[in-house]
């Protein structure tokens, strides 16, 4: 049962007399507890809604086009509380956050509904058999944080005594036609090497319903006092991990016509190896996990260079990025300068003093690190940063400094760009400012 907060004017619900404050009990005799129930059962064209209005139970018949919105709005998107994570994974980055940051940064979500609706990854440890049955009934494709298929090791890595037995849910979902994207956070000495081979082999047996797998290296901040002793990947161990993954890519490609499993870009950077060519990433199914981001950026940027006309505007700019992407961004800047003689572009690698030097991705750079390391540097007329440094849909960095505050401190305009080659080139040339 969920309370209706508002009814959209002109909607089918309004036309049938449904009111704010009514409690939605059932749709076509199916109990409604959250957004998945609502979306699934309200999709039909002919609906019978059982509502509680004050102390009365009333029935309302609604007729609409199939899949059209019914027109009801609720207090929260999920129609109840977001489910938090019950694990205490040895590699969890949230546990490595410093104190005093905004409260939302410490929340660990592990909500299967958000996996289907927004692409979040879930461990399945929050779920019971009835939840799995509902996912199968509704045919909801989801993203799963697997980490290892060794039950005992999964219990150890996730500090949850149920984590091993929940692996059975992965098999059930795959065997019932649910498409799964999987991720493995790889930790040296724990789930790499032969354990990684075991996990990839086990997941491979569930194909083709394993859509894709990403293997990403553990990220370690400087705030790890009292936490499980983990080490970072070295050039050698990163290379060994790539070799294992590429062995399975070849096997899967031969058997299923797709590579399926991909190492994140960071493995190639740590191992000091060339990034694979674009076709090796197929349709970039694990892009959001940092798989193929740099190769995609390079390809798009090269395409943009060929298709962008020069407007003759003189530009003196700078770009700030993390150490991991520095060489790539520097190369792109040099290509742009060669193509557009009136462009001068300096690229600065920002050391992550806030989280620690082992954190090298642009998305975890803070405003205060930008200010401390770029003050007094030649920045030109505009400083470009990646939008991944900012809270989604805002101009706020992880340390709660804002883009205008950083701009004021550095005395330069600051422009956030998406991880898109065309967007980056347009920002370099000032086209998005005109």
Uncertain stretches of 5 or more adjacent residues: none
Largest sheet: 6 strands, antiparallel
Q: How many domains, as an integer? A: 3
Averaging pLDDT over every residue, what do you get? 94
Assign the CATH architecture of the largest domain: Alpha-Beta Horseshoe
- How does the overall form come out from the CA principal axes? globular
CATH homologous superfamily label of the largest domain: pyruvate-formate lyase- activating enzyme
Structural class by SSE content? alpha/beta
Tally of extended strands?
A: 15
Highest CATH level, the class of the largest domain: Alpha Beta
CATH-defined topology of the largest domain: pyruvate-formate lyase- activating enzyme
Description:
- This protein has 14 helices and 15 strands.
- The protein is an alpha/beta fold.
- The strands form three sheets. Strands 1, 2, 3, 4, 5 and 6 form a six-stranded antiparallel β-sheet that branches. Strands 7-8-9-10-11 form a five-stranded parallel β-sheet. Strands 13-12-14-15 form a four-stranded parallel β-sheet, with helices on both faces.
- Strand 12, helix 11 and strand 13 (343-350) form a beta-alpha-beta unit.
Question: Secondary-structure blueprint of this entry?
Answer:
Layout lengths: L1 E6 L4 H4 L7 E5 L2 E2 L3 H7 L4 E8 L2 E8 L8 E3 L37 H7 L2 E2 L6 H10 L3 E4 L5 H8 L8 H9 L4 E7 L6 H12 L5 E8 L17 H22 L4 E3 L1 H7 L21 H15 L7 E8 H17 L3 E8 L16 H8 L7 E5 L16 H8 L2 E5 L3 H9 L5
Parallel strand pairs: 7-8, 8-9, 9-10, 10-11, 12-13, 12-14, 14-15
Antiparallel strand pairs: 1-2, 1-6, 2-3, 2-4, 4-5
Helix pairs in contact: 7-8, 8-9, 10-11, 10-14, 12-13
């Amino acid at each position: 049962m969920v309370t209706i907060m508002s009814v959209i004017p002109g909607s089918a619900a309004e036309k049938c007399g449904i009111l704010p404050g009514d409690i939605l009990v059932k749709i076509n005799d199916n109990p409604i507890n959250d957004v998945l129930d609502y979306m699934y059962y309200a999709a039909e064209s002919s609906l019978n809604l059982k509502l509680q209005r004050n102390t009365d139970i009333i029935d309302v018949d609604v007729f609409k086009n199939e899949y059209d919105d019914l027109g009801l709005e609720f207090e929260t998107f999920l129609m109840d509380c977001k489910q938090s994570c019950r694990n205490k994974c040895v590699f969890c980055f949230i546990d490595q956050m410093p104190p005093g940051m905004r409260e939302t940064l410490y929340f660990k979500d592990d909500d299967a509904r958000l996996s289907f609706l927004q692409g979040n990854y879930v461990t399945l440890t929050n779920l019971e058999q009835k939840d799995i049955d509902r996912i199968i009934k509704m045919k909801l494709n989801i993203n799963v944080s697997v980490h290892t298929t060794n039950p005992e090791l999964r219990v150890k890595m996730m500090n949850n005594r149920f984590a091993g037995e929940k692996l059975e849910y992965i098999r059930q979902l795959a065997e019932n036609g649910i498409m799964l994207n999987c991720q493995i956070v790889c930790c040296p000495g724990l789930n790499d090497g032969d354990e990684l081979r075991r996990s990839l082999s086990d997941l491979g047996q569930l194909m083709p319903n394993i859509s894709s797998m990403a293997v990403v290296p553990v990220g370690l901040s400087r705030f790890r006092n009292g936490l499980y002793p983990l080490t970072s990947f070295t050039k050698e161990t990163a290379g060994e991990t790539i070799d294992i993954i590429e062995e399975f890519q070849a096997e899967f490609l031969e058997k299923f016509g797709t590579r399926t499993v991909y190492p994140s870009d960071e493995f190639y950077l740590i191992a000091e190896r060339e990034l694979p060519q674009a076709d090796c990433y197929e349709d970039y199914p694990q892009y959001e996990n940092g798989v193929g981001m740099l190769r995609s950026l390079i390809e798009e940027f090269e395409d943009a260079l060929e298709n962008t006309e020069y407007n003759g505007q003189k530009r003196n700019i700078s770009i700030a990025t993390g150490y991991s992407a520095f060489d790539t961004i520097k190369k792109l800047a040099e290509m742009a300068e060669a193509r557009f003689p009136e462009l001068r572009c300096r690229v600065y690698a920002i050391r992550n003093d806030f989280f620690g030097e082992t954190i090298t991705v642009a998305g975890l750079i803070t405003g205060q690190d930008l200010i401390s390391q770029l003050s007094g540097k030649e920045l030109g007329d505009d400083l470009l940063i990646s939008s991944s440094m900012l809270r989604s849909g805002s101009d706020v960095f992880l340390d709660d400094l804002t883009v205008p505050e950083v701009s004021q401190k550095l005395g330069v305009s600051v422009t956030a760009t998406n991880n898109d080659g065309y967007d980056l080139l347009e920002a370099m040339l000032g086209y998005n400012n005109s």
